[in-house]
Every structure is written in C-alpha cells, then in structure tokens.
Design a protein that fits this description.
This protein is α/β, with parallel strands linked by helices and 207 residues long. It has a single domain (2-206), classed as 4-Layer Sandwich (Metallo-beta-lactamase, Chain A). It is built from 6 helices and 14 strands. It has helices at residues 36-46, 60-63, 66-73, 92-98, 166-177, 196-202, and strands at 2-9, 14-21, 26-30, 49-54, 76-80, 109-111, 116-118, 123-128, 137-141, 144-148, 151-152, 155-156, 185-188, 194-195. The strands form 3 sheets. The chain has a 6-stranded mixed β-sheet with strand order 1-2-3-4-5-6, with helices on one face. Residues 57, 59, 132, 149 line the site of zinc ion.
Amino acid sequence: MVQVEIIRVGALSTNCYVVYSDGSAGCVLIDPGGEAELISEFMERQELTPERIISTHAHADHTGAVAPLVTRYQCKFGLGAADAVAAGNQSEWLIDMLGDFEEPPPPSAKYFGGETLQCDGFEINVLATPGHTPGSISLLIDDLVFTGDSLFRESIGRFDLPGGSQEQELSSIHTMLLTLADETVVFPGHGPSTTIGHERFANPYLQ
Ligand SMILES: [Zn+2]
C-alpha cells in the first residue's frame, strides 16, 4: 500500500509529498520547494531514503530545496524536459519571497510524458500536462495523481506566467487528468486534496 505524507513548505505553502510503500526504505519526494530540514526530519523519523526527487514543474516554490536534498542523499532529480532550462532561471521576486531557495542542479532525468519509473514498491507513470509551464508534468501512482500547479481543488493553475498557455492547460486537464477514474485522488501543488470525480462536476474552470 502506497503512503503519502504531505509536508507544507515555504512562503507559498507548497505541498511537498513524500511517497513510499509500506515496509520499504526507499521513497520519492515530489516538489520539495523549501525547508529541506523539515523534509529530512520526516524521512529520518520514518527511516526513509529518497531514491529520486521529482518536481512537477520548474517554478522556484517547487524546486527550492532540491539542491540541498540531492547533495545530502545523492539521489536522482527529474523534471519535465521543457522546464529544464527554466529551473535555473527563476524570477528574482519569487526567489526573494521564498527566502531559502537554492538553485537546483541540472536534472539527471528529463521527462516527456509516457515514462514509467520503477520505485521501491510502486511505479510512477509520468503524464505530460503542459500549460502552467511548458514542461509541467503530473505523476500517476496507482489511483493517486500528483498534479503540481495544473489542477487544484475547484481551481486550476495560472497560465499568465512566462511560457504558460490557457489553451494548453485546459487541453492537458481534459485529456490527461479528467480521463482518469472518478475515484482517483488528486494531490495538487498547493491547497487541499480532491478527487477527479469531484473536479469533473465542481470545478468552475472545467465546465
Ligand atoms: Zn507553479
């Protein structure tokens, strides 16, 4: 059974997710946007070691603690291919607001969507969901989907930031996310969790 721990980090309260399988020592970290110490404390308490870190997109509030965690655990770092350059070129105002941002290393894996990643006790299917950024990805693990800033509970991500596209974002949500089963649990980059079924009828941006 896959377990999900939500650690809210940084000035924008980014949801950093620690995903691991019962009884396994390896875990995957999704969107460590800041507060590396807080994230490490949880993993040490649970005796977990990250095998890889994945950021759903390049924005600084989703990548700010990648560098110290990669250094500490010597793990892989994956990101959507089209966001790889932007990760090292984030806006100063956002970096200043976050406070503890460290520029991430170049990704060791660049995803295009369609990849299956083998982890300790589970696998991850990478879904290309561009729109919020050109390289935004969502991560499907069994009946859980981690949507970054593409899909929120009853809202969707901004598409007015550099590289964003409203048309692309809506298309990604409709073709890659709303096609999942109703009971699929959605873990967004900010705010509360939801389900695909709830968003299908209650999300005002998707009607
Ligand atoms: Zn974002």
